[in-house]
Design goal:
The complex is a heterodimer of chains A (394) and B (478). Chain A is of the alpha+beta class. Chain A contains 14 helices and 18 strands. With 478 residues, chain B is an alpha+beta fold. Classes of the chains: A alpha+beta (394), B alpha+beta (478). Chains A and B meet through β8, α7, β10, α8 and α9 of A and β9, α8, α9, α11 and α17 of B.
């Protein structure tokens, strides 16, 4: 039977963790569990959930900063920001469509999983906007790092370590993000019928233009229709019109269309969440980070070995792949190809036995792995916080 | 000034100096080891010149392999190490100690690779900040973080201090613009962190290294992100009768959904000092000046400026002066970026670097004035208004020990004030030795212990830049 701890305060959380550390009882650190299927399965009899740590603790629109307790629903944060015409700059993806999960993602998990979106190249990931954290370490001590001001180099930046640590270094109790004004409007230039190499070249040209492209994605030709390449501009209305016009010159001979406002926003939310690859749900999903110039060759090489479907989100610095789930879900082939392209591959969706049997995250060099293990021990000497979520034995 | 303590030099190390120098000579080319007193003197301080210590020796390696050999040797011998870029730290981050060897990166200054299609560059870590931009400016690209010392400071130092600059409101600070590094660990192991692809697996070591002040290892190469220059950029001067009005205008601009690429604030003393130096055309009849820069096509800049001017008028702006030429733009930025140097021409100064929530600005400016006057001194304020990063320059005479001590006390009081109102001790200069003993004002023992445990992962014996960042007492080894 699984025990569910739902502390309502940081002090309660600290007591729960200290007791678990003394008893060497592992805890699965969670928000609302919508991303429970990410990472390696954790062997723990107890869950430590942030869901009762709820509520915005600070929001100063004119200072572009928001803080909330870790279990606050992301939707509540986004609604509060929208009411003041602001947003989380890094456009956090929603994993529910891919993972088929239910419930409300929490802001703490946005930080813990270092979520990002198609605006990544321009606005960074959660790590780049996260300016302060409070967390309970594996000793049961409440620790603060960073703060509520956006420029702060005081001491070691433990904020960065917490971002993307998937609950293995600490139980986040409060997170503080810098935010940005929401652009007045957006539009998307669509280039039709480009082959993948041409599409990557067009996207790179757009991203390297002075027009502040905030999204560049490509859906190769498939049963849904011809190949489409998407370039997004977000700005004041006059600038959007002007910049979309200027960007048309990179289309060459390709036919173009423009998606305005809602149509553009709907498209990018779909790309952000990799929804074009979500069905059929049996397929395994890989999230690959690679330099744009090597993306098309990487996919072309893998296509010769695997029945794959690809989605390029180059503004998000990503290529998503959907592959058959059998055997190792393509791990051997994908890892080898990604390694030679000097990228990284994360297995996002696969049957649980596959996720338990292969590394979900790329294996690292022995020297780096040793540092990572010691960082884990420096936070969680008893190894009780979501052990094994990222790497076996860590 | 002498209120900041240095650890007592280890007599055992001092006694073994000849052997240590001989050991360094055995692994490095002849001209890479500096041991004469005359030549070592150039390395005894950085830009916090009130403090200086003669290092045991200085080495200037040319390759990652040499850095690795040096660190492995010094680690084996138990000798302390002070890494150094260009020595421009205002916080004393590169000040040596008598029993430490300075490892300087100035010879590692090559651009290794430029990739315009992926918008990345690979550089050796001793390259200067401005040289990175200079290498791609003709292609229309630039490296975004632009600390005032960018002509001299190295990317190694920028990474160590997580440096910012005037334009980070839009483009972020160093940690947002570095994709990968080659890091030499204390035992000489060379590791690659990150690369030209984002999302390196595991904990964010790259984020940890940025701002770690040379305590975790020595960065010898870096992959940096470069950006395409905007079609145009135009700074505009806005003069106000009060700092409150200027501060309210900044808040209203952000509230209107406009994030200018830079919003710089100067008070009257700073305006006068910088204008006398740079002849930038700053208005001299105002109490507060904002330099606001916008980017884009001419039509876009016109539109953005029209919005900003309208907001500024609602907040009582007295003068508005737009740059009409590239020369005027250069002069406007020259004035701001030489604020520290220009101040140095009229007095000695210490430069503070606290950050505050911008809503606290009027209160903090008033309190700074009271604090400095209370110590019988003068202050000039320049700061990054959009992000609340303050640079009060406390003017004093360094030949007067009493005045120097008062300047330091005033600085400490200002930094404590920054923390009290919800800010921090340092926004972009780093802790170094300067703010080391104030760390307990911002962090409690558990916070500091967690940082020190992470530090100990890399350096359990506290050999790397050992007297920086953390108070000398109460250190945690692992």
């Amino acid at each position: 039977m699984t025990i569910l701890h739902q502390p309502g305060t940081e002090a309660e959380a600290a007591t729960i963790v200290a007791d678990a550390a003394a008893a060497r009882r592992p805890l699965l650190v969670q928000g609302n569990g919508t991303k429970a299927a990410l990472g390696r399965p954790v062997q723990a009899e107890a869950i430590l959930s942030a869901r009762r740590l709820d509520g915005i603790t600070l929001y100063e629109p004119s200072e572009m900063v928001i803080a909330a307790r870790a279990g606050t629903p992301l939707a509540a944060i986004e609604a509060a920001l929208a009411a003041h015409g602001q947003m989380l700059p890094f456009e956090p993806m929603d994993y529910r469509p891919l993972l088929g999960s239910q419930g409300e993602p929490t802001i703490g998990a946005v930080a813990a999983c270092n979520l990002s979106g198609p605006r990544r190249i321009m606005a960074g990931a959660a790590r780049d906007s996260l300016i302060g954290v409070r967390f309970v370490n594996g000793r049961g001590e409440a620790v603060k790092s960073g703060g509520r001001v956006m420029k702060n180099v005081t001491g070691l930046d433990l904020v960065k370590l917490m971002a993307g640590s998937f609950g293995t270094l600490g139980f986040l109790t409060e997170v503080t993000f810098k935010v940005l004004p929401r652009p007045e409007t957006e539009a998307t230039l669509v280039l039709l019928g480009l082959a993948e190499r041409e599409a990557v070249a067009a996207m790179s040209a757009a991203l390297g233009s002075p027009f502040e492209v905030s999204g560049a994605a490509h859906l190769p030709e498939g049963p849904e229709g011809p190949a489409r390449t998407f370039i997004r501009i977000e700005n004041f209305a006059a600038s959007v019109d002007y910049r979309i016009g200027e960007l048309r010159t990179i289309a060459g001979a390709a036919r173009t269309e423009t998606l305005e406002r809602e149509a553009s926003a709907g498209l990018w939310s779909s790309i952000r969440d990799a929804r074009p690859l979500a069905a059929p749900t049996e397929r395994a999903i890989w999230r690959i980070a690679v330099a744009p110039s090597r993306a098309a060759d990487l996919v072309a090489g893998l296509r010769r070995r695997l029945a794959l479907e690809a989605l390029y989100d180059l503004g998000g610095s990503l290529v998503w792949l959907a592959v058959p789930p059998e055997d190792d879900a393509g791990a051997a082939a994908i890892r080898a190809a990604v390694r030679s392209a000097r990228g990284h591959a994360m297995l996002v969706r696969a049957p649980e036995p596959v996720r338990a049997a292969i590394d979900v995250f790329d294996p690292q060099s022995p020297a780096v792995q040793a540092i990572q293990a010691r960082i884990k021990a420096a936070h969680d000497p008893a190894g009780i916080l979501s052990p094994g979520r990222m790497y076996a034995g860590m | 000034m002498s209120t900041i303590a240095f650890p007592t030099p280890d007599p055992g190390i001092l006694a073994r100096r000849d052997g240590i120098v001989a050991g360094l000579r055995a692994i490095l080319p002849r001209d890479a080891v500096i041991d004469s007193e005359d030549e070592r003197r150039a390395f005894e301080t950085d830009a916090l010149t009130a403090y200086r210590r003669m290092p045991l020796a200085v080495v200037l390696p040319s390759t990652t392999a040499e850095v690795s050999a040096v660190l492995a040797f010094l680690n084996r011998e138990g000798v302390r190490i002070v890494p150094r870029g260009a020595g421009t730290s205002l916080a004393g981050g590169a000040i040596p100690q008598e029993d430490a060897v300075v490892v300087g990166l100035s010879k590692m200054n090559r651009i290794l690779d430029v990739n315009l299609s992926d918008r990345t560059m690979r550089v050796e870590a001793g390259v200067t900040n401005l040289a990175i931009t200079a290498a791609v400016a003709h292609e229309g690209f630039f490296y975004a973080p632009d600390p005032s010392s960018q002509l001299a400071c190295t990317i190694a130092g920028n990474i160590a201090m997580n440096s910012g600059g005037a334009h980070c409101l839009k483009y972020g600070v160093t940690t947002n613009n570095i994709l990968g590094v080659t890091l030499v660990l204390l035992d000489g192991t060379v590791v690659e962190i990150g690369g030209d692809a984002l999302d390196a697996p595991g904990y964010d070591l790259l984020g940890l290294i940025c701002g770690s002040e040379g305590q975790l290892g020595i960065v010898t190469e870096a992959t940096v992100r470069i950006l395409r220059q905007a079609e145009g950029a135009r700074p505009v001067l806005f003069g106000f009768s009060t700092s409150e009005e200027a501060g309210a205008a900044v808040a209203a601009i952000i509230g209107a959904g406009i994030v200018p690429v830079a919003m710089e604030f100067m008070d009257k003393p700073a305006i006068e000092i910088c204008e006398a130096f740079a002849k930038a055309g700053y208005p001299l009849d105002v109490e507060a000046l904002l330099i606001i820069e916008v980017e884009g096509s001419d039509a876009e800049m016109d539109a953005a400026l029209a919005r900003i001017v309208e907001i500024a008028r609602r907040h009582g702006v007295k003068t508005v002066k737009e740059s009409k030429s590239a020369m005027e733009t250069a002069a406007i930025w020259k004035g701001r970026k030489s604020a520290f140097g220009a101040t140095g021409r009229i007095a000695d100064y210490i430069c503070m670097d606290g950050t505050i929530p911008t809503g606290q600005l009027p209160l903090v400016l008033r309190r700074i004035d009271e604090i400095v006057k209370g110590h019988g001194l003068r202050v000039a304020n320049v700061f990054h208004a959009g992000d609340g990063n303050l640079h009060p320059l406390i003017l004093y005479n360094c030949n007067d020990p009493n005045e120097a001590a008062r300047a330091e006390e005033a600085g400490n009081d200002i930094l404590k004030l920054c923390v009290e109102v919800g800010g921090c001790l340092t926004g972009e200069h780093g802790v170094g030795i300067e703010k080391r003993d104030l760390m307990r004002h911002q962090f409690n023992e558990d916070d500091l212990a967690q940082q020190m445990r992470v530090r100990a992962v890399f350096d359990p014996a506290w050999l790397m830049n050992p007297a920086k960042v953390f108070p000398l007492d109460g250190r945690v080894a692992a």
